[in-house]
Structures are given as C-alpha cells and as structure tokens.
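Reply to thread "Modeling small-molecule complexes from scratch"

Following up on the discussion above, here's a worked example others can learn from. I took a protein sequence and the SMILES for zinc ion and predicted the complex. Inputs first:
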Amino acid sequence: MSLPDRAALGTMHGKAAAIAPPFASLGLSIVVPPDLDTDAFGTFSGEVPRTCSMLEAARAKARAAMAATGLPVGLASEGTYGPHPVIPFLAQGYEILLWLDSRTGREIVETLTDPDPCYDQIEAASIAEAERFLSRIGFPATALVVSPACDRTRPIAKGVRDMDQLRQLIDARCNDGPFVLQTDMRAHLNPRRMTMIGQLAQQMADRLARRCTTCSAPGWGFLRRGPALPCAWCGSETLVPGGEIRGCTACGAETPVARQDGRTEADPGSCPLCNP
Ligand SMILES: [Zn+2]
Ligand SMILES: [Zn+2]
C-alpha cells in the first residue's frame, strides 16, 4: 500500500503549522477541517475532562477530521503534562501522534517525552508576585490560564497573552483572594509544545518513509518495549528496560532491537532478588 497524497488533521489549535512541513517532504499535504471542536474531547484546563485514554482521544479527533473532510487517512495528536514520575518537583510532557488509515483500519503511533516542558503554575495575589514566573515561562509568547485559587477547574480567562489584560483581570479580582496562573498548554499558545509536536511529526514522517521488508508497507518502527534485562548474577527479570520491538502494523512482522548501549544484562544492584 502506498502513501496517500493528503491526510486530515484533527486539530483546532494550529498544529498544522508544526505538523505539515515534515509531511510535505513525503509529498503529503495536511488538510485541516474548519470548525472542528476538538475541545469536546477534553481540555487541558479541566472544564471538559478527558474521560478516555490519550490514544482513544486521538482516535476520536482523527475520525472527526476524516468525517469532515471525506479523506480516508487521518492524523491527530494528544499531549499530557504533569509531575515527573520519579522527581515530582520537575515537570514532564508526553505527546502522541496517531496515523489512522480507515481503508485498512491500520494505526501507527509515535510518541515523545519532553523532559523540559513549558508547564508551570503559580499562586499569587499580585502581578509583582508573579513576575519571575512570567519571565520563566516566556510570557507573553506562552499564554496563561487564569483561575481563582479556590477552583482551578473554572478559569476566568484562557489564552491570556497581554500584560494589560492580565493586570485588569487581577485588579478586578483583588478582593476575591489569590489566583492561579498556569501555562496554557494548547499548542498554538505554547511555543515549546509546538516545537515538540513538530519533532513528533518529523518522527512520524521518517517512519512512514521506512518500508516493511516483508510487505513493503510504509511505517516500519517502534511497537513496544522489549522484555526487561535479566540480572547478571541470577538471571531473573529486573526492572531495567531491555531493548525494543520494531515492526509493521500492516502485516504484523516484527523484530527485536537491542538497547543502544549494548547492555544485555542488568547490574545485580537493580535485581529485586539479589538486592531486595
Ligand atoms: Zn539477581
Ligand atoms: Zn509489513
């Protein structure tokens, strides 16, 4: 199966600016349907909770874009931001990009972890208290979500990119207690996130350029992590990640790929039996 010349992108947050260029090098143009309400599938600021997994949300957006454009192939991205799983005072972002071909039902998923996202928040009672925060997040290139500290899921303003507007919002609320300023995570309002989405689109385009050696379908690449490394002393399974499994979601061909550092055994120090 060959690549289509067009794919529908389910977004209303300007992601095509980052996603289209890598695909253009494959001769594939990105079509964005106007008026697609992707916020119906969940918002970062919490008014519409995302009730399904990231992949399900991306699937729903891609399908909505395909239905709106009549194109058989769709793309959608989804991101999640929060505390680092191991170092809670650091933030981490995780982005996925889905390629969905309705002619075969085939899906390809590329993912990316951002170790240094522009994701932050502060509780403050005045602009002066927020000044260092504002310069750290790159305001006004990065926009803000402003909420009362007593209820962060009910923002009083989103996409704030203007100091005068921010002052007015805060002055108008000065008797109602402190407020919370959060980085707006919508792609067109968060330049760091847009850069990451561009990198992810490049990963997907590179992958679509790699053909399966078994069935020659485009899209050979990462499928899942391989088994964990065995302990060098006792051979039992550790928590140290092994290599990865790469393959083709069209025909099911797959092959294990060793870790980049060449390690095939784990240090006994990370073995739950030898070092409990
Ligand atoms: Zn062991
Ligand atoms: Zn194949």
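What I'd highlight from this example: DSSP finds five helices and twelve strands in the chain. The chain has three domains: 6-115+188-209, 121-184, 213-276. Questions welcome below.
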